Amino acid sequence: MSDLLPCPFCGGTPAWSRLGPLTFVVLCRDCHTETARYVAEALARAAWNQRPTRAAIRAEVLREVAEEASGLHFEGWYEVGVWLRARAEREEAGRGSPGTALGGEG
Ligand SMILES: [Zn+2]
How close is the Cα of 70 to the center of ligand 1, in Å? Predict the structure, then answer.
């Protein structure tokens, strides 16, 4: 259990659990988020440890929306794209602000 990384969403303590034959999951004891079900503990453990942080997910979403906005060729959308990319960089640097349109508690 010691090789499980802290919860990517709340920093809480994770634990793996055997739900049945060939059914393993890793879940957070604090916020109860969990991985998909896997046939082996090692797979559940690997999936947990590879999960992106909420900030990384937000940054990816912002980049995707910025890319989409850049392709619209309407006046003003270029600036929107620039703003979104800058916001994505702030998210990755851990400086995103809570309560944005993308939700989450930061
Ligand atoms: Zn958690």
Answer: 35
Q: Judge whether residue 92 has pLDDT over 80.
A: yes
Separation of CA 6 and ligand 1 centre (Å): 8
**pLDDT confidence tier of residue 105, bands split at 50, 70 and 90:** very low
Mean pLDDT of 41-64: 89
Question: C-alpha dihedral over 80, 82, 86, 87, to 10 degrees?
Answer: 10
Task: Please tell me the distance between residue 33's alpha carbon and the centre of ligand 1 in angstroms.
Answer: 6
Written as six digits, the tokens of 28 are: 């957070």
pTM, two decimals, is: 0.55
Distance 75 CA to ligand 1 centre (A): 42
Q: Ligand 1 centroid vs 11 CA: distance in angstroms?
A: 6
Q: At what angle do helices 77-92 and 54-70 cross, to 10 degrees?
A: 160
Q: What's phi and psi for 105, nearest 5 deg?
A: -105, 15
